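Entry 14. Ran structure prediction on the chain below.
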Amino acid sequence: MNACAAVADFPICCCVTQARRYPIRSQDIVRLVLSVAFFAGAGANLIMLLVAPEIYKGFADLSFLPLYQSLWRRVVVPHLSVWVALLVAFEVGLGVLLLSPDPYARLGLISASVFTVFLVPFWWGGGALINVLLFGLMVWLLRFSYPEPVLSLIFGG
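Output, structure tokens:
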């Protein structure tokens, strides 16, 4: 008697024993990691907004583009709660899209790529390289097709 037979009602155990239509590929694992990163980013932004919103006031100070600094101070900061709520919703949306099959996965990769490029001028003081690397990674991921949702590849389904 194997462990899965002993706990046949436990869904994860049963999913492990099912045959998959598509194998789990490295690019699917990367999509999962990126999705978790966007969910974590949404959570972090929400917590910062609720606990320490003053953190956002100087966010554009390191930008090398005066336009970013000006727009940040004149448009974003006065309506910070609205903009951060939109950012949180956007990041959650990206996470969901990245977990989805095509064409939604592709939309998520394109949207996330544009988002990371948009962040480069904000993070010039240290995080720009990370965003450039993430952009390259997501462009690389666009080479592949994604016929299955990530979670069904992992858990069977």
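The helical segments are 3-6, 11-17, 26-51, 66-76, 80-99, 104-119, 128-141, 150-155. Will compare against last week's run tomorrow.
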